Amino acid sequence: MARVFVITGPSGVGKGTLIRGLMERLPQLELSVSATTRSARAGEQDGVDYHFLAPAEFQRRVQAGDFVEHADYAGRSYGTLRSELDDRMHAGIPVVLEIEVQGARQVRCTVPDAVQVFIAPPSLEVLRERLIGRDTDHPEEVERRLQVATQELTAQPEFEHVVVNDSLPEALERLTDIVALHLRSD
Ligand code: ADP
Ligand code: 5GP
Q1: Would you call 41 exposed, middle or buried from its count of C-beta atoms within 10 A (0-12, 13-18, 19+)?
Q2: Does 11 contact ligand 2 (Cβ within 6 A)?
Q3: pLDDT (tens digit, 9 = 90+) per residue, 123-160?
Q4: Residue 59 Cα, ligand 1 centroid: separation in angstroms?
Q5: Which of 3, 47, 68, 71 holds its CA 20 to 30 A away from the CA of 105?
Q6: Structure pTM?
């Protein structure tokens, strides 16, 4: 069985940016494409960035047991489909999940040997600047995400690994070291 790597932390902290860098450095990693009920942002593609599902379809798949984990985040549903993990794990391909904290907690039960990394911002103010700078969410949505972030940051002590994303090159180096070490030990 291959490793599962969970990268979690508040929206806007840089998870996606770090994962892109991580996957360039460790090309054997594959990214799980999550399902969500939120609308696609400009440039996002169905089946590539997310599996975009209508709420009823998402619920049907929850009832069918299709999710390894799922959670409500800022009024929308997000989840990891079993089909994204099973074949890769059996084929020995390491998989990366980019998910929020409630989902990471569920993976702790469903995939207990998953390696979990919490990405933390240097401060809430910096997180706000990054969410605003990314320019993908309306101001009310940014505020909603910051409120959730305040809660999520209290979960840091639950995680085996915490990487503060202040300097991007340094955070990427730390994250790559953590993942590479676990890949080597398998
Ligand atoms: P997440 O996937 O956690 O929501 P993103 O990867 O989309 O976050 O990053 C949010 C914004 O912050 C993006 O505009 C990204 O370019 C920027 N960013 C990420 N890491 C850093 C960093 N270390 N320093 C400055 N800006 C960063
Ligand atoms: P966004 O709307 O910015 O793409 O994602 C919002 C939040 O949902 C982010 O923190 C992101 O990591 C998280 N997320 C994305 N996919 C999943 C998933 O499959 N499960 C869970 N629990 N969270 C997810």
Answers
A1: exposed
A2: yes
A3: 999 999 999 999 989 999 999 999 999 999 999 999 99
A4: 31
A5: 47
A6: 0.97
